[in-house]
Write a structure and sequence with these properties.
The chain is mainly alpha-helical. The chain has helices at 7-26, 32-52, 57-76, 89-95, 101-115, and strands at residues 2-3, 53-54. The protein is globular and about 40 Å long.
């Protein structure tokens, strides 16, 4: 793994970031916002890291998946309260406050999408 700059992945990151903001602000459905947003967040993190790191595609994607799983399991432990952010709407939204097996499935789908990217 080495530092680099990849404008293609930075563009992908920015496009997904904008999509995530629009989904959070304007979509209030039962599928795209909860499931699609979670799929995209894994690709978002992966694209951000690929913007600045030259790394093995599979290892990086797996690392992002494990990170997403860790955050989801921490939600089960109500970790937002550890930092005193339970009343902070922005931090609660970003970090999440409730565990869901469906979120784990969404993260796995995002991982599969990340595997489609080539070095």
């Amino acid at each position: 793994m080495k530092l680099t700059f990849n404008s293609k992945f930075l563009f992908i990151f920015l496009a997904i970031f904008l999509s995530e903001i629009l989904i959070a602000k304007y979509l209030h459905d039962v599928f795209i916002r909860p499931f699609g947003g979670d799929v995209l967040v894994v690709v978002l993190i992966y694209a951000f890291l690929r913007s600045f790191l030259k790394a093995n595609n599979r290892k990086l994607a797996l690392g992002v998946l494990l990170f997403a799983f860790l955050i989801e399991f921490l939600q089960k432990l109500n970790y937002v309260t550890w930092f005193g952010w339970e009343n902070n709407k922005l931090m609660s939204t970003i970090l999440g406050t409730s565990f869901s097996v469906y979120d784990l499935l969404a993260y796995f789908v995002g991982y599969l999408i990340c595997l489609c990217f080539r070095d």
